[in-house]
Amino acid sequence: MTAVSDEWAAEARDRLPAMVRRFVERNLPEGALPNVTRVSQRGRMWRAPGSKPMGFTAVAEYGVRRVSFSWRAKFPVAGPIAWLSIVDAYEETGGRMDGRIWGLVPFMRTRGDEVEVGELSRYISETPWTPHSIIGNRDLEWREAGERVVSVATSVGPRPVKLTFEFDGEGDISSCFMADRPRRVGKGSVRRRGGASSRTTHGLRAPCGCHAMERSGGSCRMVRSCTGRAR
User: Fold this and answer.
1) Per-residue pLDDT tens for 153-162?
2) What are the angstrom distances between the C-alpha of 34 and each of 43, 113, 230?
3) Residue 69 is part of which domain span?
4) Are the beta carbons of 87 and 98 closer than 8 angstroms?
5) How many whole angstroms from its chain centre is CA 213?
6) Which of 3, 46, 92, 182 shows its CA 20 to 30 Å from the CA of 158?
7) Is 1 within a domain?
């Protein structure tokens, strides 16, 4: 591996499956690992099947050496007159999601074990945005799980969290899903699967667009679509 220091490269050889090491080699620029990576995003979300999409802009920050992230988004609801600010995060105090009108008036506050598990799964699922974390975060356990398939897990939170990544023929992560993400739709559980396309910015090759899908029984719906730029 040539993208990072010899120390990190040696550790990665012992800790990462071969296809993940190749992914890191392809996507990381040369140089030392940062402590945090930042991604600017613009996209849309759907609250329910058939609902009108809500546009948003956001900045996401990801810890490189530990499981932590924050996603700070702004959703215009009446042009420039009114907007919702959302903070989705996993920090030392646990997972949380907070919402405010105009960034001032609280209207949502969520905490608890299920929230923590959901935030941990989000951190893992978005590692393609921050491949530095694949090398730097020893709390992530990567295992080969089949042809072009790897699993990644962490035991940081209230219970173990495990996701599966699939790779395409060029060695890029093409999709991911978590079979038991704590989200309910009616009486059934939901699987979430995502996909992405990549581009290179400042030497870092990362997804420039992604989408998240939820599947329940035989139905599937888009829940998030966004473009982003790592920096």
Assistant:
1) 998 888 889 9
2) 26, 29, 13
3) 6-230
4) yes
5) 13
6) 46
7) no
